[in-house]
From TrEMBL:
Pfam families: Ribonuc_L-PSP. PANTHER family: BLR7761 PROTEIN, YJGH FAMILY PROTEIN. It comes from Deinobacterium chartae. It comes from the Bacteria. This is Enamine deaminase RidA (YjgF/YER057c/UK114 family).
């Protein structure tokens, strides 16, 4: 079975030694995605809904780069710096996944790697072609 890694080029991938997405066979694992835009800027630092949307776009890119899609996602984990923001993050999640309805967890954390980040989302997927 071969292994396929995708790196998005963020500074943390090289500093931590990780990939945005890893695929081994039918299994895909996507690291925590945040509101960083492809150019390295932060999306909408004060709006958790817009940050969640950007994180999900980044997650979708990671999936696509290893031959998967949002439709293949079976589990997500959402980390929020303020659990009171859960309805806005949930709305972005529902809009992204619709009828896919992956198993999901939503947790409050004290902080993320950058203090401007309000939400981080990771996913696991299974691809059967």
């Amino acid at each position: 079975m071969s292994r396929q890694n995708y790196t998005a080029g963020t500074r943390w991938e090289s500093e931590i030694g990780c990939s945005r997405a890893v695929r081994v066979g039918a299994q895909v694992f996507v690291s925590g995605c945040t509101a960083l835009k492809p150019d390295g800027s932060m999306a909408d630092a004060d709006d958790v809904y817009l940050q969640a949307q950007q994180a999900l776009r980044n997650l979708e890119t990671g999936l696509r780069e290893v031959g998967a899609s949002l439709a293949d996602v079976v589990r997500t984990r959402m980390f929020l710096t303020n659990i009171d923001h859960w309805p806005k993050v949930a709305r972005a999640h529902l809009e992204a996944f619709g009828d896919v309805r992956p198993a999901a967890s939503m947790l409050e954390v004290s902080s993320l790697i950058d203090s401007r980040m309000l939400v981080e989302i990771e996913a696991d997927a299974l691809v059967f072609a």
